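#struct-help
A.M.: can someone run this one for me? Single chain, 263 residues.
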Amino acid sequence: MATHLEQRRFASTGQSVSVLGLGTVKFGRNQGVKYPGGEGFALPSDSEILHLLDLCRENGVNLLDTAPAYGVAEARLGALLGSRRKDFFIVTKTGEEFHDGKSEYNFSAEHTLRSVERSLQRLKTDHLDCVLVHASKDDLHVINHTPVLETLARLKEQGKILSFGVSAYSIAGGKRAVDLADAVMVAYNKNHLSEKAVIDYALKEGKAVLVKKGLASGHIDSIGGLEDNIRFILETPGVTSLVFGSITPANILTNIKAARSVS
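D.P.: on it. Structure tokens below:
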């Protein structure tokens, strides 16, 4: 029986997601990550990932965040989720690929279609709950001058994805994503407040907001106490879910305990 963790409506999908989401970059990639531990850490075993997935289910975390740029994370999730698929709201991405230690970007219609089909196959599912554009730093240009959002909208009409949005970098890009999509992902914590303008705008427009870098990519001590920061983020009106990356059960349980303290 899952222990209560608050859930919030995810835009117009008819689905609700937990206020914490588990990021899975460390399930599939150990290069070019900004988390403590640096390069080349050991990826978790299949049994360790299964334990983390069950830990999330038992404690009410139902949002999983993944991406093609996270190495083999999508494929590992697809191989391991099995009957657990129905218990999770899966967010994946398109636009960024990670090869030979560096990111490459492609926001063409052809690549977007191919990327989503590949994610469906890797994750062994008939639909994706949300696909975010893994934007480059020139996010406003990506949104306004490439066909990526239009292509995702068509895939939504076909039922292959329930919702779509943008993992944004700028305030202008984030607000434009709110205008054109169902969801936006922004960086936000007690020491990074500028993108609150996007959160406020999304709240006004009824769109979902996912928070990235809420725990400063694992360097939480640099921005104050863990519980205070999680409460600060989740008590911000408009925030749907805070996504954090971890492969350590104790860390996941600590974050869940902090989230349960939110008023």
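A.M.: thanks! Residues 171 and 197 are 7 Å apart (CA to CA).
D.P.: also worth noting: Residues 7-260 form a domain with the TIM Barrel fold (CATH 3.20.20.100).
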